[in-house]
Each structure stands twice: as C-alpha cells, then as structure tokens.
Amino acid sequence: MRRLLIAPALLASLLASAPPAAADAARDAAIVARSVDGYIRPATARFAADAERLQDAVAAFCAEPAEARRRPLDAAFRAAVDGWSGIQFLRFGPLGEAHRLERIAYWPDPKGIGLRQIRGVLSERDPSVTNPAALAGKSVALQGLTALEYLLYGDDGDAAGAPGEAGAFRCTYAIAAARSLAGLAQATAREWQATDGFAARLLSPRPDDPLYRSPAEALGELHRALGTGLQVTQDLKLKPVLGDSMDSARPFAAPFRRSGLSVAVLAADLRSLAAFLNAADFGRAVAPKHGWIAGSMAFEFDNAIRAAEAVALPIDEAVYDETARGRLNYVYVVLGSLRNLTQQDLAAALDLKVGFNALDGD
Amino acid sequence: MRSMATETTIGRRALLWGAAFAFGVALCPSRPRAETRLLVSTARLPDRRFGLVAIEPDGALRFATPLPDRGHEPVVALRRREVVVMARRPGRFLAVVDVADGAMRRLLSAPDGRHFYGHAVFGPGERLLYTTENDYEAERGVIGVWDADAGYARVGEVDAHGIGPHDLALGLDGRSLVIANGGLLTHPDSGRAKLNLATMEPSLAVLDLRSGAALRRLVLPRELHQLSIRHLAVTSDGTIGFGMQYEGPAGDTVPLAGIWAPDGTVALLPQDHAAPAETRNYVGDLAIDATGRYLAASFPRGGRVGVWDLRTRRPLGLIAAPDACGLQAEAGSDRLWISDGDGAIGPVDAGVALRRSTVTPLPGLAFDNHFARI
After folding, report:
1. Rounded to an integer, what is the distance from CA B90 to the centroid of its chain?
2. Residues forming a β-bridge with B115
C-alpha cells in the first residue's frame, strides 16, 4: 500500500507516503511538558482545592445559616467558578472521561433542561439527590457547579438554609452537590498528577500508542484545546449574549448569571488561556520568523482581559449599556483575532498542518 | 479565475493528461463517452473565496463559481442540467448552478427559523428536492421540500425523526428517504457548538416520501450513543452504509462505519486496521463502490481513507491521504474517488490495490468536504 509505483500511462502524481515526520520531536515534547507541568497540573490541582473549600463553605453555611457565613460561601463559589474557567477548555483526557465536563458544569442549557430537572427534584424533595453516591448516577444536570448555583442563588421559593423543610432540603441537596463536585475535581486533578495514565501518554507518546503516536500529535491536542477554549468563550459565552444588537441581546444565555459572575467568567477564561499560552512558551521554540506570534497573542490577550475587567455591571445590565456593551464587543472581536492567530499563524509556526477538511469538518 | 487558469495552463495540461486517462478508463466500454462527464465539488478557490468548481475530462477547469459562503454538498440534476449547492451548516443559501457554464441560475435562502445542514437529494424525476434542515427554536430536525419545476418553490417540510439530520439519500424503491440523524443539538447563535453531548441520540431513519411517516428507524445501543451518524450511501441491493463521528473520549476505539442490510440486520464494521490517532474517530464522507463490495470512509483529521470488503466485512487497509474528505463511487466499476484539501483528486481501484492516483487541477484550490461525479 505504501509503495511508490508509477503506472506508465499515468502521469498523475501518485500519493503513497506516510504523513510527514514531525519537524522537531524534542521541541514538541518540551512544549507539551511545559504546558502540563507549568499549567495543567497546577490548574487542575487549584480547582480541586477550590471545590474542596466550596464543599466546606456550603457545609458550614448550612450548619449555621447566618449572614456571617454567607460571605465566605459567596467567595468560595466565586473562586470555584474562577478555577473552573482555568480548566474548562481542557476538554480531552480526564475531563472527557465519564461525562465529567457536563457533570461539573451542565452548560450551555438553552432549553433549561437542567433547571426543569432541579425544580422537579426540589418540588418533590427527591431524597436520592442528597446522597452524593446516588447523585453521581443521576442526570448530569443535577450535579456540579450549575446545580449548586441554582440551589444557592436561584431566586424562587425558599433559599438554602431558610427556616423550614424546603430550605433544609435545599441545603442537604447543596451539600451533596458540593461533595460530588469536589469528588469530580479531585479525580480530574489526580489523573493529571499521576505519573502513569493519561498525562504520561500525553507527555511520552509512543508510535504504538493509539492515543498519541508522536510529540507532534500531543502538541496538536494542546493546540486544539487553545482553539476550543477561544471558540467556547467567543461563540457560547459571548455571541448569543450580545446578539447582533441590543434588541437581540440574550443575557439569560450567559453562564453563571444567577450568581452574577458572567462577566467575571469572561475575564477568567481569557486570563486562563493567556496563562496556558504563556506556560507553554511557544515563542521560545519557534523559528525566528514566527517569533512575533507569541508576543502578538499576549498583547491581544492583555487588551481583551483589560476590557473585560473594566466591565463593572452585571451581564443583564452590561449588554444594554453603551460603554459596557462596547467593551464586550471589543472582547468579541479580539477573540476572533486570537482564533485566527491560533488556527493559522501559531499552527504554522508549530508545524501543525491544519488541513482545510481536517480543521472543522462536518 | 480566468487569468489564473491561463497562468497555469502548461503545468496543468501536463498533469491533466493523466487525468484524461483516468477518466477514460472510468468509462464503461459499452457506454458511449458522455459529454457531461464532469467532477463538481465545493471548494476554496485560490483567491480564498468559497465556490463550486467543475473539472472536465481533460482536467481543465470548466468553471469556478463563487458562492456567498462556504458550501457543502453539490447535488447533480442531470436532466435539469443543474447542480444544487447547499450551504454548509449553519448556512442558509441554496445555489442552483448551470452545469454547462457555471452560471448561477438561482440563489435561494432557507425559510425563516431554519438553516441548512449541507446535504440534499432529488426525488425521482428530479422534480422535488429534499434538504436537511434545523428548526432550531423547536430543536428538531426537518426535511425541507422544494419544487424545482416551480422555480425551487418551498412546498413543504416533514419531520426528520431525529435531531441534527445531515446526509440523506433516496431509498432504492424511489419512494423513501434515508436520513442520517447525527443527534447533535446546535443553535446558530452558538456557532457550531454542540449543546447536548451527554444526551445525544443519533439514528438512521427511513421515511415515506409522500407521507413523511417513519418506516424504519435504527438507533445504536446506549453505550454507543455518542457516535454521531453523519454520512451514508445506498447500494444497488438496498444496503445502507453509514459513517460516524465519535463525541466521546479521544482515545476510545469505537466502530466508525456500519451497514444496515435490507433484511434489517446491522453490522458495525471492525476497526482493527486503524488506531484512533489515524482516524481521530471522525468520518468525513463515505462511499460504496458500484459493485457493492467495497466501502470506503474518509478520516480527514487522521489523513487516511479506510476501506472495507463488505463480502467478508473485514478491513482491507488504510490509504494515506492527507486532509482528504470527499468520496465518490465511479459508475460501472469498483473504483472509488477521493478528493482532498490540497486540491488533489483521483481514484483508488480497491479491487487491485489501495493506491491512490491523483491530479491537481489548479494550484491553490482546496476541495471541500464533498464532490459529485457526473
């Protein structure tokens, strides 16, 4: 099959070769190692710690639902959402296993399926959600940060911790959801820390490993993750929220709107992707003619982060405010530019051949 | 385009002599050489615009017609002397191009609240055109019906009996439609993002053309529910071959192609000739040769095309084909044609050897996902 054979009457070029060898396997492996050790492992460990603290904060608040305990709970929730921004773009390996991604945050949910399910559980006081082990086997929408957000910030009925049975049930469910979240975050971090298993396969690809046969393929995975992260933030977290105009804006489509963190999520996503890029230090390894790319991307990221951080209004007001909307539109444009830089320039600099059909097929 | 074609004439003619030969062999000895023998493909043109290209038997570019945006599948209506080009999802245009000169005869748009998924098929007699569409507010797949004789008037739509209908084909009886329902929920506001990975339920549905009723439906076992069924081909004995894209963990080894026999039995074809890294668990197009013996599935992300022998239902092997996606069977032979993003196109003679011969008609041209042979 791989022989090169020229049929006498056929002048057409005969394609019969293996894919081109990686330009520089050692360079690719070094970038992967920097990304894993310098970013992915610390970020997943941080999220596991955030989730653990959130679990403690929920338990402490529910044990004594006083206003004084509410502030640490809000801070812990905010930190966990921030930590989630740090790893949600790593949608391969540990987060791709066992629906962890959807179980940690069931979003987007355009039809409000998750909401319906949670409301159903609350109105029936379904006791099975109060057991973390049983909860893990239930709908992904009933678990994790998005469920927890509704339990803590949903403005219907009795708040968690309110006097009475409804408030108590909400708290018991929230404790179970927080424990389930902490378990998922820990499992994700553990798999990334382990010196065998997925991280090892990414760090030390082998020709006989079906997952990654070469450092170039492992590098390709990380490059794709960067592209996916930019896409998710631009296409899912920003585009439908902004709409084409104020008239078509849909702030309800924003993630973590109930807790007022939608704008913070945008900034956190951007900071995380910038930090990931920085840890990988692509610029150090590429040919001099590509040297501008890393700097240019860092510059674009800085601009977008500043613009997002300058939005002080919550998302439901920001999309209708000229200044805030302008800043969010600017973030949207910069994200598009960063996607182009990633897909075209960075891919070329890393000798990642991103094909026309392979890039975004159908 | 004209100036570009002129500039490259010499190099291209030399290459294309080979193409003429390949095309000549492609003809059945008993059949007169058809004037219209042509390859039509969606493409990215050398000037980076998206378009439809037609390549003549001698390899010359017959036309390159720019499209409003990226196209997906070209559908040939020979009696009408037209090619219908569907917008790539979530696009909304439907272009009708003259097969003789590439003139844009009509440029239509999906109805309000619908976008196209990129595939279409003509019913018997080439009068009615069926298009896969997303009714995105209701989150359901539909099949749009257009009357080509009435200037492609929209005359109706039926339920696709699944979310995310993609490729479709006319049933062997001419009275049914076979639809690959990928199962993935998307909304144009969210670009191409998939909104229901945890709950997706892909299916193959066979519909009655007149009533729209579901005659048969194939749903994969629950543990395979993340295999999005996207492309299909119907053989002359009514076997339906289908190709899939896996939305689960990248390292999983899962079947990517299958056949649904006329007797209702289903076989998922073994994948032991290809590692996940070679397939990326992603089939871009699928074809079964005219003899019904060889099934090919392209893996554009892995840069390979896999071929199976349907008689033994065993894999024959892989063809190295970087960025290749489009696949087509040649009439009256066991040849399968492959197109790629580097602008190369050509046949594989599966019964002889898994070796691909190619021509590159125009420098800078990238063939898009699908093409058609006339």
Report:
1. 16
2. B134
DSSP A125-143: T-GGGGSHHHHHTS-GGGS
Four-point Cα dihedral B317, B287, B96, B86, nearest 10: -70
Report which secondary-structure segment, H or E, holds B299.
strand B294-299
Query: What residues of chain A score a pLDDT lower than 50?
Result: 1-22
Contact criterion met (CB below 8 Å) for A216 and B257: no
Cα–Cα distance for residue pair B234/B241, rounded to 1 Å: 6
For residues B188 and B88, give the distance between their C-alpha atoms in angstroms, rounded to a whole number: 12
* Cα–Cα distance, A328 to A240 (Å, whole number): 12
Tell me if A219 sits within 8 A of A28, measured CB to CB.
yes
CA B357 to chain A, closest CA, distance in angstroms equals 5
* Residue A147 near residue A106, CB atoms below 8 Å: yes
Chain B: give the shortest CA distance to residue A282, in Å.
23
Q: d(Cα B374, Cα B366) in Å, to the nearest integer? A: 20
Which residues fall within 8 angstroms of residue B290, CB to CB, at 6 or more apart? Answer: B236, B329, B330, B331, B332, B333, B334
Q: Shortest CA distance to B133 belongs to which of B115, B151, B159?
A: B115
Please identify which residue in the block is written with the tokens 């999906």. B110
Tokens of B319: 């063809």
- Counted across chains A and B, CB pairs separated by less than 8 A come out at 158
Write out pLDDT tens, residues B94-125: 999 999 999 999 999 999 999 999 999 999 99
Q: Would you tell me how many other CB atoms lie within 10 Å of the CB of residue A22?
A: 21
Name chain A contacts of B277, Cβ cutoff 8 Å. Answer: 209-213, 217
Tell me the per-residue pLDDT of B331-369, one tens digit each, with 9 for 90 and over.
Answer: 889 999 999 999 999 999 998 999 998 888 888 999 999
Q: At what angle do helices A41-63 and A67-87 cross, to 10 degrees?
A: 160
Q: How far apart are CA A330 and CA B193, in angstroms?
A: 22
User: Shortest CA distance to B169 belongs to which of B235, B110, B219, B117?
Assistant: B235
If you compute the radius of gyration of chain B from its CA atoms, what whole number of angstroms results? 19
Q: Is the pTM of this model over 0.90?
A: no
For residue B46, what are its two tokens?
Answer: 């050398």
Q: 10 Å Cβ neighbour count for B30?
A: 6
Alpha-helical segments (H) within chain B: 2-7, 9-26, 276-279
User: Which residues in A lie closer than 8 A to residue B275 (C-beta atoms)?
Assistant: 210, 213
Report CB contact under 8 Å: A235, B191.
yes
Q: Which distant-in-sequence residues (6+ apart) come within 8 Å of B348 by Cβ? A: B296, B305, B307, B319, B335, B336, B337, B338, B354, B355, B356, B357
Residues in A touching B134 (Cβ below 8 Å): none
Instruction: Search chain A and give the residue with CA nearest B278.
Output: A210
Q: What ipTM was predicted for this assembly?
A: 0.71
Name every residue whose Cβ is closer than 8 Å to that of residue B224 and which is 6 or more positions away in sequence.
B254, B255, B268
How many other β-carbons are positioned within 10 Å of the β-carbon of residue A160? 26
